[in-house]
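Form 12-C: Joint structure prediction
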Amino acid sequence: EPEVTQTPSHQVTQMGQEVILRCVPISNHLYFYWYRQILGQKVEFLVSFYNNEISEKSEIFDDQFSVERPDGSNFTLKIRSTKLEDSAMYFCASSFLPGGTEAFFGQGTRLTVV
Amino acid sequence: GQQLNQSPQSMFIQEGEDVSMNCTSSSIFNTWLWYKQEPGEGPVLLIALYKAGELTSNGRLTAQFGITRKDSFLNISASIPSDVGIYFCAGPGRGSTLGRLYFGRGTQLTVWP
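Section 2 - Result
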């Protein structure tokens, strides 16, 4: 069964460092998303991406964040200068249809900022 | 943002029991989704509901889209230990057509053998 894969599964980084989280969405999907989940809290939307551009972003997705689809398969989330409060699970998701309603999620990257 | 309130926050039940959890919103949703998340994994879509009043089953799971469009419930019948996990309701934001999903805080389900 096709799946969304994320690497790394766990990343520890020092405050102020840049991190890049990587995702390989399901191959025929057209819509891509990043969500995050702070420990013990609900899943929060960060950004959606379609046709090589951001289609929607949340208040969390400030100038420190950027997304890119550098080739036909990868979808990345970059955090430019990490803060302690960026520590969370980051989930990539993809869907064939718009609206995210049939979105498939990856297993997540646990980001720990120290 | 749109708030989804899930209850109960956690449930501890015996294997074989039925489970019911619900989700309410202050605003109308046009789609209700139920996800399950197991430790160390991403959310997995269980059931999607697209029409008010719709009742949909997926094996032992049944979910309904409330007729007011502001609530949904999920039932699990004859629970088994592998039902353990966090169950989230979710829905697309009003005016969002490109993927913003709002999630509830989840119901943590524990099943004792």
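Section 3 - Comments
The interface with chain B takes residues 4, 31, 33, 35, 41-45, 48, 50, 55-56, 58, 91, 93, 95, 98-108 of chain A (CB under 8 Å). Chain A has no helices and eleven strands.
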